[in-house]
Amino acid sequence: MKAARASYIGGFAGTSNVLAGKEYEIPVFGTMAHSFILSYGEEEKAFEAFAKMYPDKTIFLVDTFNTIEGAKKAVEVAKKLGMKTFKGVRLDSGDLIKLSKEVRKILDEAGYKDAKIIASGGINEYIIKEHVEKNAPIDGYGVGTELVVSADLPYLDCAYKLVEYDGNPVMKFSPKKITLPSKKQVYRFYENGKFKKD
């Protein structure tokens, strides 16, 4: 809460913290989540549903399965729905410099030159500086963990992942990240009547 308030006072456009938005009258921002896409089973259906819910604020999250294919599907859905424009796409994993250049080309060639590219996922000032120096066509950033917690101090960098929906296993695909599908069962092991491990 305090971090959201301090960030807003310091010049950030808003927060993803809904309670901070309510308490401090800060604009609240957010895009679709990977779990939203996984709950639909395929990007096209999720993109269509999201675009219908938020026609003027549509930002497609394109990296749930394959970033380049996701960007192409976002364009296909936008055209199918007759959208002259949409707010943009979000890249949340992978080589953001390389992917942003490829995605920008896809958007531009499809006539969506005004669509923005937003990057998120472990972003800090050094990463943003590198993106700027390498001319990554990224228009905005979603900065979280390292905004208010120094990386040289302990912090918990974790995310809740949807692994099963309506009895069906689901998973996000991402380079360098592994999420096993299906619900898990925790087992506790004892040795000589004492807890040993889970």
Strand and helix layout:
Blueprint (H helix, E strand, L loop, with lengths): L1 H8 L8 H7 L9 H7 L2 H11 L5 E3 L5 H14 L7 E4 L4 H14 L6 E5 L4 H9 L6 E3 L2 H4 L15 E2 L2 E2 L19 E3 L2 E4 L1
Parallel strand pairs: 1-2, 2-3, 3-4
Antiparallel strand pairs: 5-6, 7-8
Quick rundown:
By secondary structure, the protein is α/β, with parallel strands linked by helices.
If you had to describe this structure to a student in words, what would you say it looks like?
- With 198 residues, this protein is an alpha/beta fold.
- The protein has one domain: Alpha-Beta Barrel (TIM Barrel), CATH 3.20.20.70.
- Helices cover 37% and strands 13% of the residues.
- Strands 1-2-3-4 form a 4-stranded parallel beta sheet. Strands 5-6 form a two-stranded antiparallel ribbon.
- α3 crosses α4, α4 crosses α5 and α5 runs parallel beside α6.
- It starts with a helix and ends with a strand.
The CATH superfamily label reads: Aldolase class I
Shape designation: globular
Rg from C-alpha positions? 19 Å
Q: What is the element string, with H for helices and E for strands?
A: HHHHEHEHEHEHEEEE
Report the CATH architecture: Alpha-Beta Barrel
Tell me, rounded to a whole number, the average pLDDT.
90
Q: Order of strands across the biggest sheet?
A: 1-2-3-4
Largest sheet: 4 strands, parallel
Q: Which residues sit in consecutive blocks of at least 5 with pLDDT less than 50?
A: none
Give the fraction of residues assigned to helices: 25-40%
Helix segment tally = 8
CATH class categorisation: Alpha Beta
**What is the count of structural domains?**
1
Number of strands: 8
- Strand content is 5-15%
CATH structural fold name: TIM Barrel
Structural class: alpha/beta
Distance between the termini: 33 Å
